[in-house]
Amino acid sequence: DKRSDLANHKTVIGGVELGKEPLFIAGHCTIDPDNGSAFLETAEAVKEAGAHVIRGGVWKPRTSPHSFQGTAKSMDFLLEARQRTGLPVIAEVMDEAQLKYAVEAKVDMLQIGTRNALNYTLLAEIGRQTAEVGIPVLLKRGRHMGPVDEFISAAEYIVANGNPNVIFCPRGTMPALDGFRNHPDESVTPLLKEKSWVPVIADPSHSVGRAKYVPACSLASIAYGADGLVIESHVNPITGIGDDPKQSITPDVLKKLIQDARILWDL
Ligand code: PEP
Ligand code: MN
């Protein structure tokens, strides 16, 4: 296949050049618009724990149409978190209208979720709409996507349309490993790196889907060569919505995880 070769391309996020030191992204799965203060508290706490980027779900892809779908109102909290912490922020977009809204709000980094990882028209549109400023795009692995070539081709849709700042995000695949939410797939990291110049930021939270196993999966990801981690964290997970009650870790646990990941990185 014809592919962009940008072997010397550097991706810099939140002052971190990927590959030089591990990048940590943390925050709520979902911003609860009725409890924006919890999100702001989390943002400050994950910064203190060592995170470089704040995550917060504004619009959410939910399995049931009757579950909370997110709301643009949450964007205000995300931007307020950026204002208060001085850190860049990331949110998922699922369609062109949300993409436009997020680009106009100058969201620092965009996430394409697992469900849209094979939505080629959306990926191409993201490449075009983010080309000018090169907003980094975290591309989650499709839940039933081939590990390497199909993943690289999906990223190529964004790159070929103008934005080289794409990052692969293994987040577990289906069918799940019995007991976990998905089948953890951080082990694809070296295989991706063998064939592509694109950095990898792993998502242990969705891979295992259970807070108590997130630290182990995080360290495994770093051991496999990931350039960073995106982790769901919440100051009080049981009061959260979306995935937060099940898989968010507290900022205390995150702080220890970040310290351990840095030690492992330096080995
Ligand atoms: C998320 O990050 O909260 C999310 C919905 O991720 P995924 O698309 O990997 O399920
Ligand atoms: Mn989530």
Automatic annotation (TrEMBL):
Keyword terms of this UniProt record: Transferase
**What residue intervals traverse the membrane?**
none
Q: Where is the signal peptide?
A: none
Respond yes or no to whether keyword Hydrolase is given for this record: no
Name the domain of life this protein comes from: Bacteria
For the keyword Ligase, the answer is: no
Q: Which GO terms describe its molecular function?
A: transferase activity
Q: What is this protein called?
A: 3-deoxy-D-arabino-heptulosonate 7-phosphate synthase
Q: Which organism is it from?
A: Oceanipulchritudo coccoides
What lineage does the source organism belong to?
Bacteria, Pseudomonadati, Verrucomicrobiota, Opitutia, Puniceicoccales
